[in-house]
Amino acid sequence: MLEPLRQGLPPVDPTAVSGSASCALPARFDAVRGARSFTRSTLTQWGLDERFDDVALVVSELVTNALRHALPDDARGPASEPEPAVRLHLMRWSTRLVCAVRDPSEDRPGGAFSPERAEENCDLESGRGLFLVDAYSDSWGWHPLAGRLTGKVVWALFLLHD
Known about the structure:
Blueprint: E1 19-25, H1 31-45, H2 52-69, E2 86-92, E3 96-103, H3 118-121, H4 128-136, E4 139-144, E5 152-159
Helix pairs in contact: 1-2, 2-4
């Protein structure tokens, strides 16, 4: 079920993007609420209200994972950094929507929660979020960042139907 690990985003024509939005998220767990609110207002602007429940669930899981597993313990709190550690990006094409969460960790999503051990780990609280991402999105994956940015992007794709 978790095969998409270390998979890049399927090819898309960057010139065909019909909308994109991004927000910085503070390194606090209440940022999940802000990510859901940002997602609701963005999807409403794009006329995609009917997709909110599924997309918001996936956004919540990806942001929670970034905050819980990708930040050092001392990075969570009221202090803000010049460059936010976690960012949410929403991108819309005519036939697909992508939500992507950037974080500073180079570790693969899921950590010790491996697909090979999914059966024995299905009752663990940690790792269930990726099963929800897999179940509610049409595909998902992650890729490391290159250049000046370090860390990774974990993304989920939703197909849009007319």
